[in-house]
Design goal:
Blueprint (H helix, E strand, L loop, with lengths): L1 E6 L6 H6 L3 E3 L2 E4 L2 E4 L6 H11 L4 E3 L3 H12 L4 E4 L9 H12 L4 E3 L7 H15 L4 H12 L2 E7 L3 H5 L5 H10 L1 E8 L2 E9 L2 H15 L3 E10 L4 H12 L7 E5 L2 H7 L3 E8 L3
Parallel strand pairs: 1-2, 1-6, 6-7, 11-12
Antiparallel strand pairs: 3-4, 3-5, 8-9, 8-13, 9-10, 11-13
Helix pairs in contact: 2-11, 3-4, 5-6, 9-10
Length: 283
């Protein structure tokens, strides 16, 4: 049997985790000097309330090499082959620590694949891998397919305000001031494992999101039609439902799923961020 595992940046719902038997290692969120585990004892609403109250941005942290070793060894103890893919190696030290843990464990049943993604972009990949495992493919074959699919993963977001990105050191004060003043909403895409600003929209957040979705579907049109995620940090459920229905109305995907971003992702993007994420066809 092949076991698929990941970290808490995965941003897919509990039903999907259970359906595909996916194990998750929670990452760390730090508020002031207290450490929490993403999705275990801290939720996005706690982060937003903390920032609003203190004006300080929480920090995020990878799990230690020892934590990864314990996580992997537990999964390997059943005799399964284990495949791990988590947040992109260019965005976090997590994958590097996982690699060091693998070296120390020295098991030929443990396989690691760099997702080159985040959030539900990782989710798409672990579900892809889990489906192959259910078909009876061995871990080596799944990893070969997974590495190819990691380069064919449309993961992007539109951010309402740059406050969180600015506080996290990911944009300048001038860029933040100008964008917020002019109501500019940046479009952020994952490319080769890094986040790139590939466009901008002007106007209220709710007005530009539909245009952003349409743009992504037009630009990245070699679509794997199995699954699409609308992943967000929005309070307005009707607005999110409208965007989900907008995508469904195009009849491009067999399944369109709403997903709420977890604590790790919310720490860096803030409230009112929304993305459309889906896989592209293999060549």
């Amino acid at each position: 049997m092949v076991k698929i595992c990941t970290d808490s940046c995965v941003d897919i719902n509990k039903n999907q985790l259970e359906k595909y038997n996916i194990e998750v290692l929670p990452l760390c969120v730090i508020l002031k000097d207290k450490e929490y585990l993403d999705g275990v004892d801290i939720q996005p609403k706690d982060i937003f309330e903390y920032v609003e109250k203190t004006g300080n941005l929480p920090k995020t942290a990878a799990r230690s090499i020892e934590d990864f070793k314990e996580f992997f060894l537990k999964l390997l103890s059943n005799g399964d082959e284990v495949i791990y893919t988590g947040i992109s190696s260019k965005l976090s030290s997590s994958f590097g620590y996982a690699c060091k843990a693998k070296e120390e464990i020295n098991s030929d049943k443990l396989f690691l694949v760099d997702s080159k993604s985040l959030s539900s972009g990782i989710g798409l990949l672990v579900i892809f891998a889990a489906k192959l495992a259910q078909q009876g493919l061995d871990a080596k074959t799944i990893c070969e397919r997974l590495k190819k699919q990691a380069d064919l993963n449309q993961a992007s977001f539109v951010v309402d305000k740059l406050d969180f990105l600015y506080k996290g050191g990911r944009c300048s004060a001038m860029a933040k001031f100008g964008a917020n003043l002019l109501k500019i909403k940046p479009r952020l895409e994952l490319k080769d494992g890094s986040i790139h600003n590939t466009g901008k929209y002007v106007g209220p957040f709710k007005m530009v999101v539909k245009k952003y979705i349409d743009d992504m579907l037009k630009i990245h049109n070699k679509i794997n039609n199995e699954l699409c995620f609308i992943t967000h940090t929005c309070k307005d459920k009707k607005f999110v439902n409208d965007m989900v229905e907008h995508v469904k109305s195009k009849n491009l995907f067999k399944e369109v799923v709403e997903s709420t971003a977890g604590s790790t992702i919310s720490c860096h993007c803030g409230e009112n961020t929304l993305g459309i994420l889906y896989l592209l066809e293999e060549n």
